[in-house]
Amino acid sequence: MPGMRVGARPSPLLLDPRETAVIVVDMQQGFFGLGGAWDRAGVDVAGAQAILRPLARTLAAARRVGLPILYLTADFAPSSGNARLWDTARGEHWMALASTGGGATHGRLPPPGVQDGDILPEAAPEPGETVILKRRFSGFFETPLHAILKEHGIGTLVLVGGTTSVCVESTVRDAYFRDYRCLLLADCTTEPIGHDLPHTSHEATLRMVEVLFGWVTTSERFIHGLTARVQR
């Protein structure tokens, strides 16, 4: 099967589609949706809204060539006995963000019937795609992710979602420690933290991945690599 050559930093990357999977991190209503918990708490979700179109194109292209797509989701049920995301040293902070009344609100509410834990429709899984619940920032911590990837012979991960410097970066670091190759799509990851600074947390993570933990590219270059493979 032909490989996929993707233009990336610090160097082009040759991917074997039989060993490559896309990981979608926490693209949930509560984090990034209009009227979601973060939006209601005054967090700027405009950056997240901006990645939805390239993300949707990326997922569609990956499905066309048969790349597996796995979803990571955070537990949005702080009252449940298993919701360990909230049982941390900063648990009260996350509880406040998830509340509907904290902070400066934009006055928006979720669409009818939509819950904070729901994956945004633009990034939603298709039937048969794996969804993994996590209760810490990393998708590998106390989840079956590593076992599932190994079972399917996956050695390269293409990461999208948010937030760039927290759950995406935590997952990239843990993947690196387990000898996966990681490719981060810069325009399909999002970060509300530090977006108003001269150098953002999003940019810092992209640089860190490029220098130490993997490769960075754009959705356009990634899709071009997929398309070129199909046309051979």
From TrEMBL:
Keyword Glycosyltransferase: no
Record has Hydrolase as a keyword: yes
InterPro entries reported in the protein's UniProt record: Isochorismatase-like_dom, Isochorismatase-like_hydrls, Isochorismatase-like_sf
Domain Isochorismatase-like residues, every copy: 20-220
MF (Gene Ontology): hydrolase activity
Sequence intervals crossing the membrane: none
Key words, A-Z: Hydrolase
Xref: SUPFAM superfamilies: Isochorismatase-like hydrolases (SSF52499)
Protein name from the UniProt record: Isochorismatase-like domain-containing protein
